[in-house]
Amino acid sequence: MVKRIVVGMLAHVDAGKTTLSEAMLYRGGGIRRLGRVDHGDAHLDTNELERQRGITIFSKPVRLTYRDVDLTLIDTPGHVDFSAEMERVLSVLDYALLVVDATAGLEGYVDTLWRLLARYGVPTFIFINKLDAPAADAARVLESCKQRWSLDCLDLSRGLEHGDMEDVALLDEDVMDEYLKTGGISDESLARLVADRRLFPCFLGSALRLDGVDALLEGLERYTLSPVYGKQFGARVFKVSHDDKGARLTWLKVTGGGLPVKSSLATEFRHGDEASKESGSVAEVYRTAGDIGKNGRVETRETVDQLRVYSGDSYRLTDCAQAGSIVAATGLDLTRPGQGLGCERKDLTPVLEPVLSYAVEAEGVDPHHLLSALRILEDEDPLLHVAWQEQLQEIHLRIMGQVQLEVIQEELERRFGMQVSFSQGGILYRETIAAPVEGVGHFEPLRHYAEVHLLLEPTEPGSGLSFASTCSLDRLDGNWQRLIMTHLAEKEHVGVLTGSPITDMRITLLDGRGHIKHTEGGDFRQATYRAVRQGLMKAHNILLEPWYHFRLTVPQKNLGRAMSDIYRMKGSFSEPQADGDTVELEGDAPVSQMRDYAIQVSTYTHGRGHLTCFFNRYRPCHDQDALVDSIGYDPESDLENTPDSVFCAHGAGYAVKWNKVEDFMHLPGGQYI
């Protein structure tokens, strides 16, 4: 029976991941000639930008058959700027192959990959690459894997050796019984331990010279299990792209049942999606045609026109995708990465998020056409956030890093013929509150009426926004309550300190009132927005800034300078770890302080130092008052996000300032805090 598994290739940039993929394809008979990244002819680097830069930017699948195993390899980006593309793939993997450079060791981003694999529960194989290089030290790297990741990282290049059997047997009672009875451990038992993430097989070699590749392929055959899928249809979307003719491709893995061509799928559109902020968008089409559910979602149905099975740049069409298959579907316009279809109803929220902001400058380019082009790129990469700043009349991007910015610039020119530049980027701050507060919004111009009372409460750091209702149906009809939930979720609400998005908060509908004759849906939108804003104006607000987790390697003689710099940047680090004539510092520091530090490290170490940073989480800003003053945001002048309410008297509407709303509101308040 053929075993069908999906394996993701992950690594820090330049570890040889794509080269290993080429070698596996070659040894498995998938290609007849080996390509090379440095020659620009690698089979998996199909994009022109990838060939130019010599790095993987976009994830892509390739298929090969090795003995009785049908392997789908998904090559993922290794550069930290494109880590969001990598993270999306993790949700559809059966196994991961983590490639480590034997000369560089466990660089900082590899630790991030390991933690993400643990979070997503992906069984992991390790390949220690580049053993042909003079500075390679496989024993040292393997020992680092044991010390930093798991003691159960075992070298299985030559199978399970007798000296390791007892240690493996201790991992499981059934395996111990088998070992005591037979004096050995079967491949099936080892495969079960691997699938449970209790054993991490390691292989050694050189992908460029094809050393160790056969042993790795044999290990993937011996130490993996066929996933068990249910009969009910399910699928997980992990990527959206467009082919050379502009057709939108939804990349997904079928996780249950089967997906025939011309299937009608229930897809959800979230009102909070950026596209909904543009007039004439697909959101407007389904705003009334679909069924509005909780959390601002609209359900509709779309038909799968084609199912493409890709291998590199080529594909074949299939009539039905069976469980375990990776396919690209056409005809689906409302899907998004992380979305679950069928029985996979829960969407996945990524761990990684962008922390830098840039303004787009494009002289002579129609801003509407530019915004449309950027929306296409945003559709393909949901962690590229595109926003139109009405007050500034500018397009702003939120991105992961400088290299991603350069790729966006090149993609706009190559695909859309637009030449753009970017102004100096800013830091993406967030805002939250310190204690619960009730917000009230009232909207009552002539022949309109709505009042909304909301409870805003702080939640755990990193929890984002959540919405709930404790309002009785006797107080407010269920249709109006669902509409308020929609309006809470459809908008990116901003704080009152700097105008940054709010987070780590639960917003609960407490009470509301409509009018049987005069209330329209837009009235509750206005009242809801104003209630959020009025609550924030009364709250004790906290400004949050993003922090990096960093790994800094410098020569011993530069240690004092490095430590002094980190203290100056308000960062912290654990005890320095010496390794020969170099020393490594690992710790955390604000993004605002470290964003240009890599250039300084290269300068004062004369190119011998190396800094790796990745987003960790948001923390309270270390200089909130000074930063708020420097930004100079006036929440009462932000007409797009007004905290004031509108009341009616003598046949005319009039505005009431936010701090006077409680004196005029129609429903009782204040009893919930």
Give a written overview of the molecule.
Residues 2-228 form the Tr-type G domain. It comes from Bifidobacterium asteroides. Keywords: Antibiotic resistance, GTP-binding, Nucleotide-binding, Protein biosynthesis. It holds the Pfam family EFG_III. The chain is an alpha+beta fold and 673 residues long. Helix content is 28%, strand content 31%. It contains 19 helices and 35 strands. It has a seven-stranded mixed β-sheet, with helices on both faces. A six-stranded antiparallel β-sheet has the order 15-14-17-9-8-18. Strands 24, 29, 30, 31, 32 and 33 form a six-stranded antiparallel β-sheet that branches. A hairpin with a 2-residue loop joins strand 31 and strand 32. Helix 6 crosses helix 7 and helix 13 (478-490) packs across helix 14 (521-538).
Describe what is shown at a glance:
The chain is of the alpha+beta class and 673 residues long.
Name a few traits of the molecule.
alpha+beta; six-stranded antiparallel beta sheet; seven-stranded mixed beta sheet; nucleotide-binding; 673 residues; antibiotic resistance; GTP-binding
How much is the radius of gyration in Å?
27 Å
Would you report the number of β strands? Answer: 35
Distance between the termini: 63 Å
Low-confidence stretches are 270-297
Organism: Bifidobacterium asteroides
Domain Tr-type G: 2-228
Protein name: TetM/TetW/TetO/TetS family tetracycline resistance ribosomal protection protein
Pfam family, one: EFG_C
Question: What layout of secondary structure does this protein have?
Answer:
Elements: E1 3-11, H1 17-27, H2 48-53, E2 60-66, E3 69-75, H3 83-90, E4 95-101, H4 108-120, E5 124-129, H5 138-148, E6 153-155, H6 162-169, H7 173-182, H8 187-195, E7 200-204, H9 213-222, E8 234-242, E9 248-256, E10 258-260, E11 264-270, H10 282-289, E12 291-292, E13 297-303, E14 306-311, E15 314-317, E16 320-322, E17 326-330, E18 340-342, E19 356-361, H11 367-380, E20 385-389, E21 394-399, H12 402-416, E22 421-422, E23 426-427, E24 430-433, E25 437-443, E26 450-458, E27 465-469, H13 478-490, E28 505-514, H14 521-538, E29 541-555, H15 559-568, E30 572-573, E31 577-579, E32 582-590, H16 591-594, H17 597-604, E33 610-620, H18 624-631, E34 645-649, E35 652-656, H19 661-664
Parallel strand pairs: 1-3, 1-4, 4-5, 5-7, 6-7, 27-28
Antiparallel strand pairs: 2-3, 8-9, 8-18, 9-17, 10-16, 11-13, 12-13, 14-15, 14-17, 19-21, 19-22, 19-23, 20-21, 24-29, 25-26, 26-28, 29-32, 29-33, 30-32, 31-32, 34-35
